[in-house]
TrEMBL record:
MF GO annotations: ATP binding; FMN adenylyltransferase activity; rRNA (uridine-N3-)-methyltransferase activity
EC number: 2.7.7.2
Organism taxonomic ancestry: Eukaryota, Metazoa, Ecdysozoa, Arthropoda, Crustacea
Subcellular location: Endomembrane system
Tree of life domain: Eukaryota
Keywords, sorted A to Z: ATP-binding, FAD, Flavoprotein, FMN, Membrane, Nucleotide-binding, Nucleotidyltransferase, Transferase, Transmembrane, Transmembrane helix
Similarity annotation: In the N-terminal section; belongs to the MoaB/Mog family.
Entry protein name: FAD synthase
CDD domains, per database record: cinA (cd00885), FAD_synthase (cd23948)
Length: 956
């Protein structure tokens, strides 16, 4: 037995069962519930009301199973001997439990004159000495029953009355789950008879041992696939699709789920054991009416009993299908609303000339969502054939984008409830605020409460996100959400656990565990581990080789990614692009062959002659049945006729090269993802991208980089309609000694990529601040010189005319402005230079951020404008040319300031301080440098032109 497998045995106790006087209803219920939570029920036994027989049976069952659940034999009569038998099985004595004594005395009072010992109910207060008491609570919070369920070691003792057993088990079923393993189950329908399916079924049973159940002999054979490994379920489904003709295999979808729900509710209503608990009685009348109407879909159309508004149906009357959309983030409220909408849509008659369109749902994605939540969204999309529209948040931006891409949408269903923290003065139909995208908000669950949502989901056995079974009562992002502390408990081994959300007692604490905003500044370290897309969701994975100082190392999990790829390779078509020395393809194909897995095709493409071992790796690939192609353009895969129907496409270390080509690397990924869409088999095909640690832009990257210094893989994938499914580390094996090392070392030189570049970045930005501002300081210092007559080789000029009219040549007052005259930073000349510099600079700062120009070209523009401005001033023969040079310099300086300050967002915050320090240094250095050059008898022109070297330094 798998050491991690949770097993259970059920022991039914009672002479009435063995004599056929009573039909047992508890074992079938426990079988179904244990199966649903992933517990393997290994045995069901029935014994008489005999202490020795019960004890003997319990000894073996408790020793060989994780849990034992008993039913019956609890009560005050002579044949209620289960407690005594359990004590004997574990060699324990019976003791009177004070808490149970108090409960029994309160519920079964005796006349005051009678002794307490004379009360027959006191028999139920005597329990084994190691007994633990588990009190029951309903999903709506109030204490359900004062009588607890007793456990002793791994034996749980339930009453024999079906109603009480069901209530007790539903309260405590979280105790029987393995919290470290998640159970997956998927039903498929095969349009063949059971007999015709036998040959293929036998092959599947042999290959996927223990994972295939069924078949159920219904018109379409139904098979259940179950495993603790979700990939195994996918492989089994794919196996049946490949072995059987097209169109015969399908997932159990909307119709089947709702039909099953109707059937289950019929049994709940029509059997005495199925009376709804008190907190759900408000649902009973409308459920009964729906069942009497004999329409399976009406079973789900249950609205809050105090409301006369059948909001979903009313909205379907008002709006067309294409005008409606559901806001769906995978939470409990919108999940409940989804099922109501699906049922209502099924009941409506669609005219013959109108197509019954898929239900539109929009998922507005915040930063750092839970992988489990996004997996549930994707599974729900597939289960019900939803038209999933995925937008980036925040909500306002997401809605704006929604109306841009889907302008026909006029109304959006919301899962808002009045007991949510923020809704105030809202009604079922309400327009968004005037400053928001204009949509009609349809609040169909407005009158529902927390316990109504859970009663609906649980009683109808509808799917919901697994996070709610792990103590989460309100789910936001993985950064701001934790399990609700009020649900915390310690299991028998002392480990901290959390009860499921439906057991929350205090409604007011529903959002306990939620903390902080959903969205944050774009410069926050982005953690888009699971990126969403704008319609059809394909799947993309990212693996990150772990490299330290350019050399690879191995860890215990080295084989994980390789193993997963190998395990899923059966019958698949593989395409690898971007290979350097073909080492990745060689390793993967060798492992596939070693495992004996038969793939359909394996094509590797790259560049010939790359690395010393290239030819050797190519030989390995061809020897194992692979095909090698050279010079394949990964951004134009559709140009190759043979590239069709791939199940897995791997882009191995996509890289353009260069120190400042992040935009080009992102564009390369974007072009590849757009291109790869045309060569994949279907929406379930996998795209794998291998990147160096730190490049991807997720919180799993090692080392971490700022968001703007990564390739932003999640955002790029999102723009190409892909869903980032998972991020895993993959470590280089010995055969992969080359191929990407040059790229890794080159990427390490990207500014700000690692902490080792910190000093270089600080110094670099100090120099940029100095060089960008120093020419301006020099021109201000030399203002009188460059506007004086000697600058143009003139001897006399009217100073008043120069600074009052700027065009007059009338000599009102002669001033000696020869090279030997004393220089002053005259306020008038300085003011003119400032005026000419300020206006163009302000205009540049106003419009520069709107220009879609990369930082590389901005730097080139800064250098050219500053250099040309200085040259123009140096060669000027009149004031117009001087002013033109000043304008060019002003534009260049302003462009540099905006560009470099914006660029600091990609680096540590310390570089902003170093930039400021550099600008301050330019003031001192510029003034003294110009004065020093003039003291060396250099003319003002020569002194100015010397500084042309300053902007040229920035290009380096």
């Amino acid at each position: 037995m798998d050491p991690e497998e949770v097993t259970a045995a059920v022991l039914i106790i009672g002479d009435e069962i063995l004599k056929g006087k009573v039909a047992d209803a508890n074992a079938p219920f426990l079988c179904k519930r244990l199966y649903r939570i992933g517990v393997k029920l290994a045995r069901v036994s029935v014994v008489a009301d005999d202490v020795e027989k019960i004890a003997d049976e319990l000894k073996g069952l408790s020793r060989n199973h994780t849990f034992v659940l008993t039913s019956g034999g609890i009560g005050p009569t002579h044949d209620d001997v289960t407690y005594e038998a359990v004590a004997r099985a574990f060699n324990e004595r019976m003791i009177e439990n004070a808490e149970l004594t108090s409960i029994m005395t309160g519920f079964f009072p005796m006349p005051e004159a009678s002794a307490a010992s004379a009360n027959p109910a006191m028999k139920m207060a005597d329990v084994p000495e190691s007994a633990q008491l588990h009190f029951l609570h309903k999903s709506c919070g109030q204490l359900d029953s004062p009588f607890p369920v007793i456990s002793c070691h791994n034996v749980f003792i339930f009453p024999g009355v079906p109603e009480y057993l069901r209530r007790g088990f539903l309260n405590l079923e979280y105790l029987f789950c393995n919290p470290d393993r998640q159970f997956f189950s998927q039903d498929i329908l095969v349009k063949m008879t059971e007999v015709a399916l036998i040959p293929v079924l036998n092959k599947a049973l042999e290959r996927f041992r223990g994972s295939i159940n069924g078949p159920d002999p219904i018109p379409c054979t139904r098979l259940s696939i179950e495993s603790f490994d979700h990939e195994k379920i996918d492989c089994a489904k794919e196996f049946f699709r490949q072995e059987l003709p097209d169109g015969l295999v399908s997932d159990v979808g909307d119709d089947e789920l709702i039909e099953e729900t109707a059937s289950k509710m019929a049994s709940v209503i029509n059997t005495s054991e199925g009376n709804l608990p008190a907190c759900e009685c408000s649902f009973k009348v409308p459920i009964e009416k729906a069942m009497k109407a004999c329409d399976k879909y009406k079973v789900l159309l249950i609205f809050h009993p105090s409301s006369n508004h059948q909001v979903v149906e009313e909205s379907l009357d008002i709006y067309k299908q294409e005008e409606l959309c559901l806001a769906f983030n995978g939470g409990k409220d919108c999940s409940a609303l989804l099922y109501l909408i699906l049922a209502a849509r099924k009941l409506r008659k669609v005219s013959s000339d109108t197509e019954n369109l898929p239900l539109q749902v929009v998922y507005i994605r915040c930063l750092n969502p839970f992988p489990e939540m996004e997996q549930f969204i994707l599974e729900t999309k597939r289960r019900f054939g939803l038209d999933l529209i995925i937008k980036d948040g925040p909500i306002r931006n997401g809605l704006l984008s929604l109306l841009t891409t889907h302008p026909k949408i006029k109304a959006i269903w919301m899962g808002t409830r009045l007991d949510d923290p923020w809704p105030k003065n809202i009604v079922h139909f309400q327009m968004t605020d005037p400053d928001w995208p204009q949509l009609m908000r349809i609040n169909a669950l407005l009158d529902w409460k927390y316990h109504h949502v859970w009663s609906f989901l649980r009683e109808f056995a509808l799917p919901y996100c697994t996070l709610y079974d792990r103590g989460f009562t309100s789910v936001g992002t993985s950064d701001n959400t934790r399990p609700n502390s009020t649900l915390k408990y310690c299991d028998v081994s002392g480990r901290e656990r959390y009860r499921p959300a439906y057991l929350l007692n205090d409604y007011a604490s529903e959002r306990r565990g939620r903390n902080g905003p959903c969205f944050s500044d774009s410069r926050q370290q982005n953690a888009n581990a699971h990126v969403t897309s704008d319609s059809a969701c394909r799947v993309i994975s990212s693996t990150e080789p772990n490299v330290t100082n350019g050399k690879s190392f191995t860890m215990a999990s080295t084989e994980d990614v390789w193993t997963n790829l190998v395990r899923s390779a059966e019958g698949k078509r593989f395409l690898l692009v971007g290979e350097g020395n073909f080492s990745f393809a060689s390793v993967l194909l060798e492992k596939i062959s070693e495992a004996g897995v038969k793939f359909d095709s394996f094509t590797a493409s790259g560049f010939s002659g790359h690395g010393e071992s290239c030819n050797e790796n190519i030989v390995r690939i061809t020897d194992h049945g692979g095909k090698v192609m050279h010079e394949v353009n990964a951004t134009k895969l559709g140009d190759y006729p043979e590239f069709k129907g791939f199940d897995c496409v791997i882009f191995n270390f996509p890289h353009v090269g260069g120190k400042m080509r992040l935009d080009k690397n992102r564009q390369l990924l974007r072009d590849f993802l757009i291109s790869v869409n045309g060569v994949l088999r279907d929406d379930d095909s996998l795209v794998l991208v291998t990147l160096c640690g730190g490049q991807g832009g997720t919180r799993w990257d090692k080392p971490q980089r700022t968001w703007n210094d990564t390739w932003k893989l999640p955002a790029v994938a999102n723009s190409c309609k892909f869903l980032l499914k998972e991020v895993k580390e993959i470590f280089k094996l010995p055969i992969m000694e080359s191929g990407s090392d040059s790229e890794e070392s080159e990427l390490a030189e990207i500014p700000g990529s690692t902490s080792s570049n910190f000093l270089r970045n600080v110094i670099g930005f100090w120099i940029l601040g100095l060089c960008n501002n120093l020419p301006g300081v020099v021109l201000l210092t030399a203002a009188r010189d460059i506007l004086g007559p000697s600058f143009f080789n003139q001897t006399n000029i009217n100073e008043t005319a120069l600074f009052d009219g700027l065009s007059s040549t009338e000599a009102v007052q002669s001033v000696d402005l020869t090279e030997n005259s004393v220089r002053e930073c005259n306020p008038s000349t300085t003011g003119i230079v400032l005026l000419i510099s300020v206006i163009p600079g302000l205009l540049t700062k106003l419009f520069c951020p709107l220009l879609p120009i990369s930082i590389r070209w901005k730097i080139i523009a800064v250098v050219v404008l500053n250099a040309v401005g200085i040259v123009l001033i140096f060669s000027a023969t009149n004031r117009t040319e001087v002013f033109s040079g000043l304008v060019l310099h002003s534009v260049g300086g302003a462009l540099g300031e905006v560009s470099y300050l914006g660029y600091t967002a990609s680096f540590d915050e310390a570089v902003v301080g170093s930039w400021s320090s550099g600008t301050g240094g330019s003031g001192l250095l510029g003034s003294f440098a110009y004065a020093g050059l003039r003291s060396l008898k250099l003319s003002s022109k020569d002194a100015v032109v010397v500084f042309i070297v300053v902007p040229l330094l920035m290009i380096f």
